[in-house]
Amino acid sequence: MRHPILLTLCVTGAFALSACDKKSTEDVDRAFQDVNVIDESNLNDVMLSAADPNEAVAYFQRATAQDSDRIDLQRGLAASLVRAKRTTESVSAWRKVTAHEDATNADRVNLADALIRNNDWAEADKILDSIPPTFETFKRYRLEAMIADSNQEWEKADSFYEIAVGLTTRPAAVMNNWGYSKLTRGDFPGAERLFSDAIRQDKSLFTAKNNLILARGAQGNYALPVIDTTQIERAQLLYTLGLSAIKQGDTAIGKGLLRDAIDTHPQHFEAAVRSLRALEENVAN
């Protein structure tokens, strides 16, 4: 009489163990799934920031092919295409992102950025106009300023640049853009001030240093400003200043600056040598 009871207990115990094993396996799978999600998220961040842009594109293309509805992967692909300077493809990718049901205003700003990179300023302007004015970000106002510049709407450009500068802790690049806007308008003192501000914010920004030289040269000021430069940078700035002097009609000063550039450069400065030779041959003729 005891054998059936024992058999029943054993069978019940087996089912219980099976259920426990199943539950344990599910818990382990779930734990590994969570780890995989974290690892994948970290990998996505690495691919977006540190990886070669074209490798990142290939990674996100594979990822979106496997899970085409995930907007984070679509964003990764679009951002990678921008980094890889594949502008036409990046516009298509950001269009797909903005068509997603979970798209945000930040995604629409990124689409406008891709459109500007693809030289489609008019549509970029329309996209930004469709975004509520309450959505205020540095990138949005930087793009608004660039579009206002392209339309020669100077007051709007200045207003947008000023707002953009106030929305970032690293304003050097946008100050440089704003200065270049002033330079193209012929406001050379205003441009010089903004380039100087940009260099104070980021001493490594050579573009702002070169633009500062252009602004000073346009005012007939051919003295190098007191800024931190390497020897090569100093030679290049002297070269820019020499060309600026020649453009202003101050040929003798320009020739002297070209010679200074050649003497300052630690290696052979082919561009300056060629410019000086052409200038001297032109004078001789």
From TrEMBL:
SUPFAM superfamilies to which the protein is assigned, alphabetical: TPR-like (SSF48452)
Q: Which domain of life is it from?
A: Bacteria
Q: Where is the signal peptide?
A: none
> InterPro entries of this UniProt entry?
TPR-like_helical_dom_sf, TPR_rpt
- Any Pfam family from its record, for instance, is TPR_6
The protein depicted here goes by the name Tetratricopeptide repeat protein
